[in-house]
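Hi R.,

As promised, here are both runs. First protein below:
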Amino acid sequence: MLGHHYTRTFLETAVASMNAGCNLELSYGVRNNVFMHIPQALAMGNITLQMLRERVRPLFYTRMRLGEFDPPAMNPYSALDLSAVQSPEHRNLSLEAAVKSFVLLKNARGTLPLRAQDLPGKRLAVVGPFADNPRVLFGDYAPVPEPRYIYTPRRGLEMLPANISFAAGCREPRCQQYSRAEVVGAAGEADVVVVCLGTGTDVETEAKDRRDLSLPGHQLELLQDAVQ
């Protein structure tokens, strides 16, 4: 109705949605949304009571399966706490999912993987606005865990037996203010440089698109300085 102008009114939109099979609305507000007009559509004969029941049934079936109508003592989800969410089994599964989701585009001269036995005495620099900023590591709609469970690249790499140096270069993804000396100083003395770049929700989210796919601000310059 608002974006594509397929319909003109909330009532018309409610009828079209119901006929299309939609049974759940992400509303603009409790008092002013599309599905609040369903009773009017029903009274006018635009939809039938049978259709309304068919649309509602799977919603309540799902709620029943989730135990929303059971006493809390009967609902197994009520007993779940942080110890269950952060159990060794779940943490191992998260690690497996992370490892299997990595996309390696290039591995010149077999640089990766970094092996712990090869790192003692080596100097490793981790640079970039995503190197040690937990806030920017999560995408749009992502749940942000407790800080103690967030491992930034810097925090993770510091677990390796190497001498770690760090330089953000710029403090946020837009990278409008860039400290070249900071990055060159850290990367210039390192045997291995890990550069952490990207966009994050500061730059792009739902309804906030970009005109191109280039790195924002001075991030490309940061990358070039880090690898020279």
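And here is the second one, sequence first, then its structure tokens:
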Amino acid sequence: ESELTGSSELVEQPLSVGRLCSTICNMPKALRTLCVNHFLGWLSFEGMLLFYTDFMGEVVFQGDPKAPHTSEAYQKYNSGVTMGCWGMCIYAFSAAFYSAILEKLEEFLSVRTLYFIAYLAFGLGTGLATLSRNLYVVLSLCITYGVLFSTLCTLPYSLLCDYYQSKKFAGSSADGTRRGMGVDISLLSCQYFLAQILVSLVLGPLTSAVGSANGVMYFSSLVSFLGCLYSSLFVIYEIPPSDAADEEHRPLLLNV
């Protein structure tokens, strides 16, 4: 392979299970903070997504899924679930629209700002939805859900590509420290499934303790605000060049 490419660097060693685990455990600080932030985003989003129709049926429409099927309370719950599906439709359209304009927004706003806006909008959207009983207000807040979804599906991977522009992050194949982008992308994607596992374990008992899906929306709002702060204080958006190896990686909030 070296003869074909004309490279004087040593050929990388074959990937083994031990080396893969070492790559994961010894991930750079920038990737670790990005994974944590990505996990918080999916944790807040998945909680809302799985319980939104229940929230509409029980809280907004004041229905009861356990009532007899011929009762008015059960009919209200069914109407709320139906309206919740329309809310998810609004969220899908907003996600498609925001995804289309996100590349243009990156020309005017930094990645940090876009991250901050997405988490803040989702936190406000889920928080205000629990405080309002107006159907049109609750449905209009679904627009904020699409903003966060589009952000989680694009910006973390774009930021990871920016990390790989730095040789300090990617490492060197000569000493066997070179990282693989495929592994790092999979680490980011794993946060989606880890969030689903935690949501399945926690939000069921939380809903039973609160008595309705209101607690889930508060949980999603709280985690989103936490992700908003974390993305500002800890996520590293720019890695110094290799010749500035001694310079400390500062959180982006200090680089304003």
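A quick note on the second one: The CA atoms of residues 5 and 125 lie 53 Å apart. Let me know what you think.

Best,
J.
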